[in-house]
Amino acid sequence: MPDSSPAPLHTKAGIACLMVMTAVATVFMTQSIFLEISQAFHMDISKARFAFSGASLCYAAAFFVIGPLADRFDLPRMALMGLGALLAAILFASTAPGFTTFVIAMGLIGFSAALVPASMIPHMTRLAPPDKRGLYVGAVVASGTLGIVFGRVAVGLLTAHLGWRVAFRIVALFLLILSAAGYARLLEPAPKEKRPGYPLWDLYLNAVRLVCRPRPLALLATGFFLFFGFLGMVTFLTYRLTAPPFLFTAGEVGWISLAGLTALIAPFAGSLSQKAGPYRISLPGLGICLVAMQLMGWSQSVPLITLGLLLLFAGAYCCQPLIFLLIGASVPDSALGSASSLYILVCIGGGSLSSMVLGPVWAHWGWTGVTVACSLSLAAAAGVLGTLASREPHHGKDAETVPLPLK
Predict the structure, then answer these.
(1) Rounded to whole angstroms, how far apart are CA atoms 228 and 348?
(2) Distances (CA, A) of 219 to 167, 170, 282, 306, 385
């Protein structure tokens, strides 16, 4: 049975962040080992990206299914169910005899992984005190980004020494340990949160209505364009670094991915936004992303590419928690699960589509074409968010958002 003594908020937040980080890591853990996957299944390396596409598309699509459920059911239990399913899917992937089976397993990994952030992000939003909500939401969002880094770095290094199948099984063992910690500290005997009395079908209709409102729609579009460019650049960076003149190994790609630790800026950006205003932080963050892409795209120097990656993650995660907060402030508290899940859906969906859409761009125009396409996507994100900011009555530190009724 779970521990009957209530866990402090910081303990709950720490476990939630670790759970989200590891779940997200499993979606992105193939990105640094495309070469090893192609060798294991005897195919061209350009096709290995479909392992990531399968995981990330199922991860994104799952949020539309899971989001409304997060507004109805016990959130910690949803997260623990996701960890259990994720563990089984990873073990299945580690035994895959062929690439088709492996892609199916990665799809199951993506769907199962989505249960964790879809439940933990609204859970922390509800638990955090109003004056610290930006800090706690930023921390959970940052943990998702650290998952991208952790997946690329840890699995890349483990694969270089032990092979990718063993690396997957080590990740599964870590998930088992996290599940035990979550069961002990998150499942506490306490009064259940009061859930809305709408029929389940109405919750799905409400999720669709969220998309039809101009303000949430603009914020969702911003997230889509941001992640199309951001994840598109990060995904094809592996191809760039494993090709001449760099010829990096999986371990070396993993090490350079540590630059993504600048995503730790997210909690501070979330906290600062409550004083300066979300637009005054997020718009410069998009500008930093554009500068970073130019450093990564046009430089032949590994230090400059690393600097660009540092700035890209920092800029993207100045924006990400603030857009979460803006969306959360635009909907009733009872729709937080649907709203946050829709936002993750369009973000990861944009990143998933970029891995497929940019394939022909890479084939015809190489890294230059990818850089231009991703830069245009970031410019579109800045344009949409800038337009939204200009139409706000107050978009400085005193800006307030009014929840929109769904029914």
Answers:
(1) 8
(2) 37, 37, 12, 29, 7
DSSP state of 194: P
Mind listing the domains of the chain with CATH numbers?
9-185 (1.20.1250.20), 209-392 (1.20.1250.20)
Who contacts 86 (Cβ-Cβ below 8 Å, separation ≥6)?
23, 26, 109, 112, 113, 115, 116, 175
End-to-end Cα distance, the chain: 39
35 φ/ψ angles, rounded to the nearest 5 degrees: -65, -45
Q: Which of 40, 263, 32, 34 is nearest to 157 (CA)?
A: 32
C-beta separation of 361 from 375 below 8 A: no
Tokens representing residue 117 in the block: 């952030």
How many Å apart are CA 28 and CA 45, to the nearest integer? 17
Structure tokens at 163: 């092979």
- State how far the Cα of 149 lies from the Cα of 64, in Å rounded to an integer: 25
Buried b (16+ CB within 10 A) or exposed e, 308-328: bbbbbbbbbbbbbbbbbbbbb
Eight-class DSSP state of 196: P
Residues contacting residue 12 through CB under 8 Å, at least 6 positions apart: 124, 127, 185, 186
> For the chain (length 407 residues), average pLDDT per consecutive 10?
59 88 93 90 88 88 76 82 95 95 96 90 78 74 80 88 94 94 75 53 67 80 93 89 85 78 62 68 90 93 90 84 76 67 81 86 93 96 90 50 36
